[in-house]
Amino acid sequence: MSANDSEQFDTAPNEFVDALETNIHIDPPNQAQSKIDESSRKEKNNNDLGVEMTSVDPALTGEDMNEAHTKETAAEQNGEKGIFNGMVFYLNRDSNAHDSIIIVEQLKNLILLNGGDIVNKLPNKDSAEAKHIIVVSPYNNTELKTVTSTFIRACVQSNKLLDMKNYLVPYDSFNALLDDAMSPPSRQEPTISESSSVNEGQPTASKPPPQNIANKRDIPTKKVSANTGVSKTSFTEEEDEFILDVVRKNPMRRTTHTLFDEISHYVPNHTGNSIRHRFRVHLSKRLDFVYQVDQYGKLVRDENGNLIKTKVLPPSIKKKFTADEDYELAIAIKQQFYKDIYQLDPVTGQSLISDNDPPARVAKRQMMMDPNVQRGSEPPFSKYRVGTRRGPIAREFFKQFTENHPTHTESAWRDRFRKFLLEYGVDKYIEYYETQKANNDEPEAMKNLTIRTKRDNFPTPGNYGNAAKRQKYEVSSNVENTLKSKGQAGDIPDAELLDEDTMKFISSLKNDLSKIDNNFGFDYTNEIAEAIRNDFSEEEAIYDNIDPNTIPFPPPIATIDLFLPQFFRMSSTQEFIEKIREIIQRDYEPSQAELLMQDLNDEAGIRKTFTSSILGSLSGDLMVLPRYFLNMFSKNQNPPIDIPGIWTSGDDDILRRGDEAEVSKLVKRQGAGRVEMRKKFLERNLI
DNA sequence: TTACACACCCACACACCAT
DNA sequence: TATGGTGTGTGGGTGTGTA
């Protein structure tokens, strides 16, 4: 399949553009209907990347909109007419009708891009309207004209309208009966969220359809070994193309485990391990291009807003150390020691001592210098040997070294020094490297020096199979089951669900603490809430009165491990803070902690792990969230310390120790209400 | 019989934290 | 502040058993 084909047929959903896990957007249900018509029109404009136009929120899909607009303009200019012009289709989105929601989206794109229309709701089978609708489904439980998805693909591939009668699906009364029997009461007729091509009210493609009645349908059936629990399902061409498309849009993550684990949420029949293996062994050969990304892995677009294909793979996340890098580090370390001991420049041999040196420098020098060496009798740098010396090496050294050698981070260089160079020996590696070079042999980087004792009860790194998942999410199973029973789970992939404790405490706290109900077993009295609110209003002038426009954007402390590309696409700190304030004003139900996390993730670009950690330090009080960021950014501290409402581990320790004087100080800063509340959190081990 | 789906491994790059 | 301990998950695989 060519690159162009793959773009048309099998494309990643928005979730995988820039950051795979980030763009699940849920339209408020009450807006769903009003957006259908507009969305349907926009779907026709889907670009050649197959980007879904599920959300019409311009703030979220601006780039996609641009792409769609480009496509529309080009199509109009070319006066293209599609093979499906004048035809109206209904896509069966039942979970068992197609292998995955992705395939439904592909079909949708094919129809729309070729001039067809899609209706989101089936009319009564006896109505006049129904006679013009063509249902796309592997089975016919509607008594309407039904074709298989092959009809759509075959027409597009041959670029002509084929004879439909070869693809018609006869009415299947058994399946109709089965569907009725298995449908929940709310599915008396297809709802907008289930059948709509715009998928309102659901995070498109974030929830692969379950395969629970696969035995009756022409979809792959997973066979499970009784002995091992391992099941195997072949990869379909659509799955392969989907995987390739995601990798093309996330090229920096192509070797990670997490990318493929995330993909597995969208490819229901396979684990992250197997998808990763599939890519490495079979699909990597077909990765004939990727989309260009910047240094952070964010997709780059051309002046028309289109993604840019490239055959040049970006560097992956972690870079291996090379022999040259090891040698340069060894030489730099040796030079630093030489300077410290002899106060001589290792290159020129000139003294580094000056009569004008400040006292601090003189004091430091006297600590570092070798007292046994007489001035003037120092060895030249070439004769100097580091020996068993291990330090001290100032952090400033690694900072400076990283500036000159930006291929690795400061932490990585320091770790390389600690774990490898010191273990191997500075002198030994320099000698080895220079000998190899002198003999025209290629030196190797240092390796196999970091054996750590195996820790029991810890999962093996890089294992994204079923067992690892089970272990990782075992703790959240109860909460998950509860939510599922309430029909609230499933919108977010299992991996995104919070652990039970986090769920409990966040669920217990809403925007307005005084409105807290105690359904979650958390004794959070109105008195405490009121005390906190009183404190809060007094604190606002001091701790929230920071003009975000005085904070440069992005703030230096806002790193990519805390924030997603959406964050960095914002134009100012003001915009970010406004978004935060807007989100926390929403009326989240206590059970919607995941939704809150998701919204902060999607709309403000805050990684869920970071949100979770912040909410912990805020005891879940969302009102303090803008304060957290304002102070974090302006003080360049994370978490910002000595700020009311923001708890540090030190504060928690004070509470645990219970020292009266210390607690008293804490009460002054945090207020009695917050201290009482925090104690309860600590008592329940919710932090 | 064998290709391949899936589980599993492990060194180590990068990171954070306590002392 | 320097340093050591160690968590996390990448990068590059290998092992196992099923289709």
From TrEMBL:
Record domain BRCT: where: 79-169
Location(s) in or outside the cell: Nucleus; Chromosome, Telomere
Region ranges (Disordered): 1-62, 180-231, 454-475
CDD domains per the UniProt record, alphabetical: rap1_myb-like, rap1_RCT
Biased composition annotated in UniProt, kind: Basic and acidic residues: 35-46
Pfam families cross-referenced by the UniProt entry: BRCT_2, Myb_DNA-binding, Rap1-DNA-bind, Rap1_C
GO molecular function, one term: RNA polymerase II-specific DNA-binding transcription factor binding
Predominant cellular place of this UniProt entry's protein: nucleus
A Gene Ontology BP annotation from the UniProt entry: establishment of protein localization to chromatin
Keywords (A to Z) from UniProt: Activator, Chromosome, Nucleus, Telomere, Transcription, Transcription regulation
Biased composition (Polar residues): 1-11, 185-205
Span of domain Myb-like: 227-283
InterPro entries: BRCT_dom, BRCT_dom_sf, Homeodomain-like_sf, Myb_dom, Rap1_C, Rap1_C_sf, Rap1_DNA-bd, SANT/Myb
Top-rank lineage group of the source organism: Eukaryota
Protein family membership: Belongs to the RAP1 family.
UniProt-listed PANTHER family: TELOMERE REPEAT-BINDING FACTOR 2-INTERACTING PROTEIN 1, TELOMERIC REPEAT-BINDING FACTOR 2-INTERACTING PROTEIN 1
Quaternary context: Homodimer.
Function: Involved in the regulation of telomere length, clustering and has a specific role in telomere position effect (TPE).
Name the UniProt record assigns to this protein: DNA-binding protein RAP1
Species for this entry: Candida glabrata (strain ATCC 2001 / BCRC 20586 / JCM 3761 / NBRC 0622 / NRRL Y-65 / CBS 138)
